[in-house]
Amino acid sequence: MSLVFDNVDKHYGDLQVVDRFSATFRTGEVVALVGPSGCGKSTLLHMAAGLERPSSGQVLCDGKPVAKPDPSRTLVFQEHALFPWLTLGDNVALALEFQKQSKAAARTQATTWLSHVGLAGFEGYYPHQVSGGMRQRAALARAFIARPATLLLDEPFGALDALTRLSLQDVLRTLVAEAQPSVLLVTHDVDEALFLADRVLVFSARPARVLREFTLPHRRKGHDLGDFATEKRQILALLGVEVDAIA
Ligand code: ADP
Ligand code: MG
Predict the structure, then answer these.
(1) How many domains does the chain have?
(2) 23 located within any domain
(3) For residue 218, what are the domain limits?
């Protein structure tokens, strides 16, 4: 599914959050959005999700204006947002029951997807009985089970410890390779952007404007991002981090 931002402005009252943003996100492409806190990244995802409207300009999905949320464009937040009164299995299965699948079929698939994210055997646990990393794994399973054409990920691993984050990045990359959704990934972690994305858009402080776009070779090998040292240095410099002064 292609997603197009065509000259999009967004204001909240007097506050301009997005400044004439144009971009095309192609089918199956993973694009990372990085930029200073408060610059408007989440606002861009909310417009892609249909939760917010542009003040001017258009957001188009497969050529049609995005007017409201749709299951084909799933948003995953930093906070897992599982229902606390449902087990992990029921939380994940719910995404399919919304698609009018039978409860039994949904439960079977939920078990499969929980195992894809390393949660085999935890179907019957409630969110409060597992760790934050496990809740976020379940949230990813819930996002993927409905096979959305577009995944909108808003700092999905931002609240996790470093090791859990690395392991979930691997899970995400595997799931993306299998299901081939288009992904917009907001992250403040430059390594995460370089590891997961085909392209990285670096934004200015508010109002969000693209300072620079980086296109990365399609398949990267591992978490050792030595090949991308130059890009990392350039992205950090655009974000105002003086790498040389630290080293
Ligand atoms: P980011 O995700 O890049 O940190 P956001 O897109 O969340 O930034 O927010 C950008 C700016 O827009 C912030 O100053 C924020 O306070 C403001 N903002 C976001 N959503 C709303 C809203 N619904 N109403 C008013 N202001 C908002
Ligand atoms: Mg945000």
Answers:
(1) 1
(2) yes
(3) 1-67+188-247
Pocket test for ligand 1, best of 8, 15, 16, 17 (most atoms within 8 A of CB): 17
Q: Is 37 touching ligand 1 by the criterion CB < 6 Å? A: yes
Q: Which atom belonging to ligand 1 lies closest to the Cα atom of 39?
A: 3
Would residue 79 count as lying in a domain? no
Is residue 143 situated within a structural domain?
no
Nearest atom within ligand 1 for CA of residue 203: 3
177 torsion bin: left (phi>0), alpha (psi -120 to 50), beta (else) = alpha
Expressed in angstroms and rounded, the spacing between residue 225 Cα and the centre of ligand 1 is 31
Q: What is the pTM of this model?
A: 0.91
What's the CATH number where 44 sits? 3.40.50.300
Instruction: For ligand 1, say whether the CB of 148 is within 6 Å of any of its atoms.
Output: no
Per-residue pLDDT tens over the stretch 3-12: 999 999 999 9
69-101 pLDDT, tens digit each: 988 898 888 776 899 999 999 999 998 887 778
Residue closest by Cα to atom 6 of ligand 1 = 40
Token pair recorded at residue 163: 């090791």
